[in-house]
């Protein structure tokens, strides 16, 4: 990774914060999707689904980077 110990610790902290943020955003999107589905709002549900998949991909990437750094 080419980071000194201080940089490594800082980067791990940044990634952990990003992971927590993405997890919270995914939880909110899940609730919003359920609401849109219950209201029969298909257009909003599709948009929320797209946003969910984008956040899910970002979370996966962040978790992969975190795993590499903490090895």
Describe this structure in words.
This protein is mostly helical and 71 residues long. Helices cover 89% and strands 0% of the residues. It has two helices and no strands. It is elongated and about 50 Å long.
Provide a compact summary of the structure:
The chain is mostly helical and 71 residues long. It is built from 2 helices and no strands.
Describe the protein's topology.
Blueprint: H1 5-38, H2 42-70
Mean pLDDT: 96
Work out the radius of gyration: 16 Å
* Poorly predicted sequence stretches spanning 5 or more consecutive residues: none
Strand composition percent: under 5%
Element string (H = helix, E = strand): HH
How many H/I helices?
A: 2
Percent range for helical residues? over 70%
Shape: elongated
Structural class, judged by helices and strands?
A: mainly alpha
Q: How far apart lie the N and C ends?
A: 11 Å
Q: What does the largest sheet look like? A: none
> What's the number of extended β-strand segments?
0
């Amino acid at each position: 990774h080419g980071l000194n110990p201080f940089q490594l610790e800082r980067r791990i902290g940044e990634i952990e914060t990003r992971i927590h943020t993405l997890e919270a955003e995914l939880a909110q999107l899940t609730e919003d999707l359920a609401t849109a589905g219950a209201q029969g709002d298909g257009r909003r549900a599709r948009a929320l689904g797209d946003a969910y998949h984008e956040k899910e991909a970002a979370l996966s990437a962040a978790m992969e980077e975190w795993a590499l750094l903490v090895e």
